[in-house]
Design goal:
The complex is a heterodimer. By secondary structure, chain A is an alpha/beta fold. Chain A contains nine helices and 20 strands. Chain A has two domains: 263 residues, no CATH class; 49 residues, no CATH class. Chain B has seven helices and ten strands. In chain B, helix 5 runs parallel beside helix 6. The longest helix of chain B has 17 residues. Chain B is globular and about 50 Å long. The chains are: A alpha/beta, B alpha/beta.
Chain lengths: 427, 247
């Protein structure tokens, strides 16, 4: 593996401070390399191995001149605002359903060119928890910074389109998304991924969200396509008092995806809900790693993850609830259920509770197994074939999580994408 | 309709049904009564095709060897088993399940599949007739249903699927009087000259509501006595032991 950093660095010279950060961060990455299973947090996803096996010649993506995306990929019959990213770079946005005075949107590229703007986000370049983050700091050249003012509730959902085209082939793309939600503001946002041809690339994105007092961020990750892509997403959230963060992950499509969610409940009565489903076949490898940090009293968190594994697929859920000694009256919950439908598939579940307060309610559970024979028999005794019965049970098993989606229009959208997918899968 | 000859069934080496014989003609209602462990549920399981039994003997259904017919085809060909313990299946909507079931069976019978509108009309009509609240159908299949609701759901399924042979496996157990009445009325409303019923029960009380043509007493895997519906009352009085000893 030979990432040509110097070439990249020279063609991206800008603010002195940023240049130094890039050089420093890339050095850190070079020392550590891609994460391997020897690192605790990467035990179930040996990224170095996966990259070596799937990319002969991975190159740094250094922007493209093409700013034209395929209009047909836009979601139809669904009223929404848009942010469009092509190969990680900001292309355009439209907020036709909103009061645009309340919304400030800038490309990360423009922020990185302005000293004052850059100073406001500089601290986020210090996070070197793993080498993928360092790599991102060194190589990021675009993304989005979105600020929502106080007291503003979106009328319609915002879809962040992450499009990829053939210039991304065999490239590693690094970008960052910043979202800040002011006091008492509400946003429902969908991260939506599409690429036209089945091209192979690696996408490394860092998300940083700030949810201020009494604000609500609902976020939906839709990964139902991009069959040949490899992805690492690190999401960090700062939640202030009385705020709500709801995240649903539809994890169906890519060859590889590792989603990492670090939610910090910093003040009284903030809450975090992470639900998701994985339906994997072939040799897909998906991991969800969550870190919910209860740093203050009276906060609530809940996680429900259901997974179905076929063929040689591999799924992992590592869910951690951390309760600081200050965080009395914490209510934390997590449950993982998986159905393994093939001898060659595997599911790893690692629930963790780390509790330093003494007045808390925390529970976790994890089950992994087969489809219940009695259920199959019941359905077959009503005339369904074994295949129909299996499919109905699997669909029901996963549908229970889809049912938890609180935005009714998004629920319909996700249900229909899920149905498309399950009809293609051979359960 | 159903002709069972010298049926032996064992599970894990333990013989449950021993040279069991039974013949049911179209339109007949047969009740099988017996104490716990006499083989009542095994009979229902074998007829519906549940795996795990070693079976000898013959079972003919409409002239065909039933034991060779796969589970789902038994249902498609008109056999309906009302479960003693209906299974809870999370996430599966009862309406969707029932529509899939009905259309699979209709397709097999060469009938046109029903679209959602026609299906809902049918469900409305049937549930009204049976005095069963329609709303249980919009819930997840049997999940969180009370014992009575589960059994009512079985009866509603029965009336929608219009089977030729109905096997009721202790459908009356755990029912209060009102639910028992609904279940019985469901069965009675479906009685006709072409449809047969095999009612498996522990207690006589269901037979106060459904008058069988024949009552058989099953003890230790064998029918020890056959009579008309008054036999049920006799059993209530003398108990199963009385009957066995009398034999």
């Amino acid at each position: 593996m030979n990432l040509k950093f110097e070439e990249f660095q020279k063609s991206n010279l800008g603010l002195k401070e940023l240049d130094n950060i890039r050089i420093k961060s890339f050095k850190k990455f070079e020392i550590q390399g891609f994460p391997t299973k020897k690192q605790e947090h990467w035990k179930y996803t040996d990224l170095k191995n996966i990259i070596t096996n799937n990319f002969q010649n991975l190159q740094i993506f250094n922007g493209s001149k093409n700013l034209v995306y395929n209009n047909k990929l836009i979601i139809k019959n669904f009223e929404h605002n848009k942010i469009i990213l092509l190969n990680g770079s900001f292309i355009e946005s439209s907020f036709i359903y909103e009061d645009e005075k309340k919304i400030i949107i800038k490309s990360l590229k423009s922020i990185l060119e302005n000293k004052n703007d850059f100073n406001k986000i500089k601290e986020y370049f210090d996070d070197d928890q793993n080498s993928m983050l360092s790599l991102n700091h060194a190589l990021t050249n675009d993304g989005v910074v979105l600020d929502i003012e106080n007291n503003y509730s979106f009328n319609k959902p915002l879809v962040v389109y992450n499009f990829f085209d053939k210039t991304a082939e065999n490239k590693i793309i690094n970008n960052k998304i910043f979202i800040s939600l002011g006091d008492k503001s509400n946003l429902c946002m969908i991260d939506f991924y599409r690429c036209e041809n089945n091209i192979k690339y690696f996408n490394n994105t860092i998300h940083n969200y700030t949810i201020k007092k009494n604000a609500t961020l609902k976020k939906y990750n839709i990964n139902d396509s991009l069959d040949n892509s490899y992805n690492y997403n690190s999401v960090k959230i700062k939640s202030y008092s009385n705020s709500v963060f709801e995240n649903f992950l539809l994890s169906l499509g890519p060859n590889l995806i590792k989603n990492e969610i670090h939610c910090n409940l910093l003040e009284n009565y903030s809450s975090c809900f992470i639900n998701g489903i994985m339906l994997l076949d072939g040799s897909q490898h998906h991991e969800l790693k969550t870190n919910v940090n209860h740093k203050y009293e009276n906060c609530k968190s809940s996680q429900l993850i259901k997974s179905v594994l076929l063929d040689k697929s591999n799924g992992t859920y590592q869910g951690k609830i951390y309760v600081d000694k200050k965080a009395q009256k914490t209510n934390g919950y997590q449950l993982s259920k998986a159905l393994i439908l093939s001898e060659n598939s595997a599911f790893n579940s690692k629930p963790e509770l780390e509790i330093y307060a003494d007045d808390v309610k925390c529970s976790h559970g994890s089950t992994t197994g087969n489809i219940d024979e009695n259920s199959i028999f019941y359905l077959m005794s009503r005339g369904l074939t074994k295949d129909q019965a299996n499919k109905m049970i699997v669909e029901g098993f996963l549908n229970e999580v889809i049912e938890t989606i609180t935005d009714p229009n998004v629920k319909i959208l996700i249900s229909s994408l899920f149905n498309e997918r399950i009809n293609k899968v051979n359960v | 309709m159903l002709d069972i000859k010298n049926l032996n069934a064992s599970i894990e080496g333990k013989k449950i049904l021993k040279n069991f014989n039974l013949n049911i003609k179209p339109g007949e209602v047969h009740a099988i009564m017996g104490p716990n462990g006499s083989g009542k549920s095994t009979l229902a399981n074998v007829l519906s095709g549940r795996k795990g039994y070693e079976i000898e003997g013959t079972v003919y259904y409409e002239g065909k060897n039933l034991l060779e017919i796969p589970i789902e085809e038994r249902a498609q060909k008109g056999i309906f088993l009302a479960f003693q313990y209906p299974i809870e299946i999370p996430g599966v909507n009862t309406n969707n399940f029932l529509k899939t079931s009905l259309n699979t069976i209709r397709k097999f019978r060469g009938l046109k599949e029903l679209d959602s509108l026609d299906f809902l009309k049918l469900v409305k009509e049937k549930s009204k007739k049976l005095k069963i609240e329609e709303k249980i159908l919009s819930r997840q299949l049997n999940v969180g249903f009370s014992g009575g609701e589960k059994k009512k759901n079985e009866i509603l399924q029965m009336s929608i699927l219009e089977p030729k042979l109905v096997i009721l496996d202790e459908t009356d157990s755990g029912l209060d009087i009102d639910a028992l009445r609904i279940v019985s009325e469901g069965v009675n409303s479906l009685r006709d000259k072409n449809r047969s019923f095999l009612i498996i029960t522990h207690y006589q009380r269901l037979l106060n509501y459904i008058k069988p043509d024949f009552v058989h007493v099953l003890v230790n895997g064998k029918i020890v006595k056959t009579g008309f519906s008054d036999l049920a009352q006799e059993l209530e009085k003398d108990g199963y032991e009385g009957v066995s000893i009398a034999k």
